[in-house]
Amino acid sequence: MQRRPLIVAMSLGLFAGAATTAALADTSPLEQQLKDLQSFQVIAHRGASGHAPESTMAAYELAHEWGVDYLELDAQLSSDGEVVVFHDDTIDRTSDGEGAINDYTLEELKALDTGTWFNEANPDSASDDFAGAQMLTLDELFEHFGHDARYYIETKSPQLNPGLEEALVEKLEEHDMIENGRVLVQSFEQDSLLKVQELNDDVPLIQLVWYYPSEEDDSTLVEWTGVTPGPAEITDEDFQAVADYAVGIGTNYLYDGRQVIDADFVQQAQENDLPVHVYTINETEEMERLMDMGVNGLFTNYPDRLLELVE
């Protein structure tokens, strides 16, 4: 074989590099985000919530420091319409208050201690720094990490948070999160996702599903909101109906110890342009099993464990 002269080879290499650079320059941040969803994503569930109080700055800072792909969070509204980062419908479990979160103003929510409970429940991971942790607003999270992080946001209990979608999209636009490829919006409620789409159809959406045994027939699996049939009955058309508005699907792997999805489900979803993200996986053996099944990402309270496997 005749060897190409070095100077020619170098020239061709430079040309190829320039072409690649030009192609990348033509890819918008939002388009790049969607491409990235085809590779494996490490999603820090409420931050590094196995190591620090969930949904607090400490949990998100730890996850971000470790280099996760997404910070996952739940968006709700205070009684005065502020978007706050909090999972439960009530504040009892993870604060020193009680009652519905929507009954409190932001000022009242800010007065709560959302960290001490973690120290009491997890003495081996306790830290004096966690005590007195304040509930976060979405603005605070965005202002702290900016465009250096990506955010995986659930519209939590939209029926209890009227106006949540409008408030959320307003914040995403205000902080330039959409066009910069910084955000995914997820929900179990299809209507909530469609509302977000109506407000801004550039927001990438993830349809969450929850499979569990039917009350009528324990051997048959059904989906919580009925957005799809059970995994055994789901068809390409069912997946395509989700793909019409969503860029991915988030699903449970187990229900009460029983496996509800398998590699065939994952492959079928992917063949219908729906990357599969599985929640919430904390044990290394299950992480490995799901990675072997070819899933596109995992939600976990222990992103350090998952990052070790990915690396």
From TrEMBL:
Residues 1-25 form the signal peptide. Residues 40-310 form the GP-PDE domain. Pfam families: GDPD. InterPro entries: GP_PDE_dom, PLC-like_Pdiesterase_TIM-brl. The keyword Signal applies. SUPFAM superfamilies: PLC-like phosphodiesterases (SSF51695). It comes from the Bacteria. Keywords: Signal. This is Glycerophosphodiester phosphodiesterase. It comes from Vreelandella gomseomensis.
